[in-house]
Amino acid sequence: MRAVQPPAGAFDGEPGVLRFITAGSVDDGKSTLIGRLLFDSKGLLRDQVAALTTARGAQSALQDGDIDLALVTDGLESEREQGITIDVAYRYFATPRRSFVIADAPGHEQYTRNMVTAASNAEVAIILIDASRLAGKGLKAQTRRHATIAALMGLKVIVAVNKMDLTGWSRAVFEEIRENFERVARTLAIADPVYVPLAAKHGDNVAARSPHTPWYEGPPLLEILETIEAARGVSAAFRLPVQRVLRMANGARAYAGRVESGVVKPGDEVVAMPSGQSAVVESIRTYDGSRADAAEGQSVSIVLDRDLDLGRGDTLTSQDAQAVKSVTADLCWLDEAPWEKGRRYLLRQATRTTQALIESIVFVREMTELAEVSEASGLKLNDIASVRIKTRDAILGDLYGARPATGAFVLIDPVSNQTAAAGMIREAA
Amino acid sequence: MSALIKSSPRLSHLDRLESEAIHIIREAAGERTRLALLFSGGKDSATVLHLARKAFWPEKLPFPLLHVDTGHNFTEVLEFRDAEARRHGERLIVRQVEDSIVRGTVKLAKAEASRNAAQSVTLLEAVEEFQFDALIGGARRDEEKARAKERIFSHRDEFGAWNPKAQRPELWSLYNARINPGEHMRVFPLSNWTERDVWTYIGREGIALPSLYFAHPRDVVRRDGLLVPATALTPPRVGETVERVSVRFRTVGDITGTCPVESTAATVEDILIETELSDLSERGATRMDDRANEAAMERRKREGYF
User: Fold this and answer.
1) pLDDT over 60 at B301, yes or no
2) With A124 labelled, which of A11, A105, B219, B255 sits at a CA distance of 20 to 30 A?
3) Which of chain B's residues have a Cβ under 8 Å away from the Cβ of A2?
4) What domains are defined for chain A?
């Protein structure tokens, strides 16, 4: 047994983290691209590479004396049997400039919910397009759906135009795909997508520039990932959903939670929502000592200058917050059981759970032309819709675009306990 | 507690992981009522215990520590486990695989067989005995492929089984911990940590660990590219030569299935340097049972393994 002392200076200067999702199907070469990113950044270890050569025996495609990079990400036995990726798999790799978390989401329509899940904790989406099968045909419905989800979740988009080798490295094909995607981006209000021509299997424009694309002036994909700025803005408004009430040594109450947006300092006046009671922050406490402030992402405990009737489910806020019982929200239906009109679901926003009722469907997004279908009467698995929701208890009227952590909610089926829908508040009334 | 007032507008990668883990542990305690923290004395569980103490400071943990002892654990690790629980004044529950064998709920093919898989039975018996509705553990997604797909709040049915095809979607930090009677949740606060993150954090925080994790001389035999400790449970085979080698353990599980690696790393910093250079994953280098079958972990997890 020993007490370990940290070596001085050993843990400073850590690079930041970028979380991104990869959207596309096996056919688009998605798993191969992830395998390539991990392989080229030395994110794979020797035994993991060795396992790839035994994992699928005869089916293992050893191309160019290469390993089958797609097998890196196919984690579950049942998936290997079917040759498709079913669930979200998380991968970790790093370059000297940045650490990365990849949420590898499946591409098929029946797994839209998994992509939504992956997107909810990401900043960037790589949307993969198979250039060889698209020339002259326009974008697949799947690509439009992936773009829709990236737009809903507020992700920055990189369009990876893959299998460029099979088009003879045709600049015309690349430009055609770019123009097609630009139209989708305008419809969905996706700001400034980035485009890169790739051959993931051979590594062209993944970690290093390809000699085959002299007409492409941008950096390779890995460099784009190293330098891209996450789209989600930092909000100045303070939000700390209370997770638990702790007792300090002197008996004072401390409200434990994570700052989801903004900054708080001792002396700040805060409002407890939804009750609206005000108090002044006396101190910010942690195991490691008192703090001069607490910013977005920090788990702390807040001591106020007076005792409020406040507990889990309430949120400490700056003065701008409003409590509402009715919102308009984008919804992605995630449950195999369709929405039942008139039924009460549980709505979970930050640490608060209350009952909710979908009063009406404003529109369902049709995925071929991305049209808004207003006469829709139901919601089923993978539907993306705009709805009006009424809640029993007041919730925070935060908009997802400004404050994603508190502008997001899930609906839970109170009988099956399944997570039925993901929601993003667009209007609070 | 230090009197130092700290201010840091930008969180480092490690700060963010720490904060996320604390948030997860507080959510578990907020959504479920009968929890336990799985504490084996291993480095990952020591890290989770440290994070849990931060999450509820200055209060004690609102749940006990639980260890399922295979009866094949290294003495140093068990002593460390008991000493840590005592030092922090936390309640420790230990349940023995040996007792499940006596009850007849665990049957082993051979007396000296690995008891890693048998732990699941004893664990589920403990869940039933104490009516636990959530178990907090130190598993990480970077450990291997089946773990890579596991949720942070992972549902277990009334048989303790994980169904990878029916996992609940897990969005933002909105964890759905609702269960029916007899079911429970497994909660993994270190899901997004890598082995390197854990070691870096152990170094930064000065988290105490069993001495096994650091280089020490040990009698081993070389078998199939692994160093197998020469112990009463794992005696040398005919024709094998016992050597005294400077080794350390990267994981500390069942003696019959855990191998050390050759190492001279005496400090956390040394280990970090070695880990950077190593080209074998943590399980690949040290776990005999995982190597036997690439899908071994997924099968064990479906059967209720942690």
Assistant:
1) no
2) A11
3) 208-209, 211, 214
4) 17-227 (3.40.50.300), 239-317 (2.40.30.10), 323-428 (2.40.30.10)
Give the mean model confidence (pLDDT) for residues A349-375.
91
Rounded Cα distance between B219 and B231, Å, is 8
For residue B271, is pLDDT > 50?
yes
Amino acid identity for residue B220 in this structure = V
Residue B294 confidence (pLDDT):
41
Query: Is beta strand A372-373 parallel, antiparallel or unpaired with respect to A384-396?
Result: unpaired
Q: Is B273 on the interface with A (CB under 8 A)?
A: no
pLDDT at B206: 95
The tokens of B25 are what? 């542990």
* pLDDT recorded at residue A165: 95
Closest CB to B19: pick one of A54, A121, A258. A258
CB contact under 8 A, B172 and A404: yes
Tens digits of per-residue pLDDT, B178-187? 999 999 999 9
Look over chain A and give the mean of its residue pLDDT values, rounded to a whole number: 84
Q: Cα(A398)–Cα(A315) distance, rounded to whole angstroms?
A: 12
pLDDT over 70, % of chain B: 85
**pLDDT surpassing 90 at residue A62:** no
| Residue A16 pLDDT greater than 60, yes or no | yes
For B78-106, the pLDDT digits (tens) are 999 999 999 999 999 999 999 999 998 88
- Tell me which residues of chain B, numbers 199 to 238, contact chain A at a CB-CB cutoff of 8 Å: 200, 202-211, 214
- Structure confidence at residue B86 (pLDDT): 97
Interface test with A, best of B149, B191, B196, B259 (most A CBs within 10 A): B149
In this structure, what token pair is assigned to residue A363? Answer: 């529109």
Taking CA–CA distances from B195, the nearest residue in chain A reads A92
Chain-chain contact of B26 with A244 (C-beta, under 8 angstroms):
yes
Domain ranges within chain B, ordered by starting residue: 13-201+295-302, 211-292
Subunit contact B168:A419, Cβ cutoff 8 A:
yes
A357: buried, middle or exposed (CB in 10 Å: 19+, 13-18, 0-12)?
Answer: middle
Give, in order, the Cα–Cα distances in Å from A336 to each of A355, A356, A376, B91. 20, 19, 18, 42
| CA distances, A126 to each of A27, A112, A195 (Å) | 15, 15, 10
- CB contact (8 A) between residue A408 and residue B200: no
- A120 contacts on B by Cβ (under 8 Å): 171-172
Residue type, A197: P
What is the domain class of B13-201+295-302 according to CATH?
Answer: alpha beta
Q: How far B48 CA lies from chain A's nearest CA (Å)?
A: 15
Please name the residue of chain B whose CA is at the shortest distance from the CA of residue A112.
B169
